[in-house]
Design a protein that fits this description.
11 helices; mainly alpha; 221 residues
Length: 221
């Protein structure tokens, strides 16, 4: 598996294992979608909401990835890749529930959210597909330490396209927890809640974070 495929797989795992966190951050708003509409519309509205949310993640990834020209400077590239690797280690610790320091990144995002939240409130409850999609695109900017840490990691990608792809992959990874319903969803949630599962995937993410750090550049004189 090449580095790009490994990175995308890691992004999917981050979203998948961060699903329980997403329930706390986005579960409440998702529950309001479809209020005032018939039950047959609800799956479509949920899909539209999540599509908007994922596109927001991808747009944020493209935004930070557009600074990839900085990677032409060797010291900056070294610092950025080191920071990305350390951030990935921190996310692995969070997924494994060994340390939750990445949630402190949410503090800075609250300033921006003050301006976005009133606009997002206009689409609550979402009664049609355009409203659900608009709500998702706005709610994707909700201050979230897991999203921010993934964004910092994705910023070290080689291009803005790759950064956007990684953030989209992260968003896709969160879909199962937010979309699945019924017995299958409960079984899936139970699997994700097992400490063994969290520890296993968290350890894999930590290993990839250590792999991302350019140790040769750091140790060279």
């Amino acid at each position: 598996m090449n580095t790009e495929a490994l990175s995308l797989t890691t992004a999917l795992i981050l979203g998948l294992l961060g699903g329980s966190h997403c329930i706390g951050m986005c579960g409440g708003i998702a529950a309001t979608i479809g209020m005032g509409s018939n039950g047959q519309q609800r799956p479509l509205l949920l899909l539209g909401y999540n599509l908007g949310r994922i596109l927001s993640y991808a747009a944020a990834g493209a935004l930070v990835g557009s600074l990839s020209w900085l990677l032409r400077d060797q010291p900056i590239m070294l610092a950025l890749r080191t920071g990305a690797g350390l951030m990935l280690v921190a996310m692995g610790l969070y997924v494994a529930q060994w340390w939750s320091g990445v949630t402190r990144l949410e503090v800075g995002g609250k300033l921006l959210w003050r301006f976005i939240q009133p606009l997002a409130g206009r689409f609550i409850p979402a009664r049609n597909l355009p409203q659900a999609f608009a709500l998702g695109t706005l709610w994707g900017w909700l201050p979230c330490g897991l999203v921010y840490s993934t964004l910092i990691w994705a910023s070290a990608a080689a291009s803005w396209q790759q950064s956007a792809l990684l953030m989209a992959g992260f968003g896709l990874g969160t879909l199962p927890t937010l979309l699945l319903t019924g017995l299958l969803a409960q079984q899936f949630k139970n699997l994700l809640q097992k400490q063994f599962t969290k520890g296993l995937f968290g350890s894999l993410i930590i290993l990839f974070g250590l792999y991302t750090i350019p140790w040769g550049g750091l140790l060279s004189p």
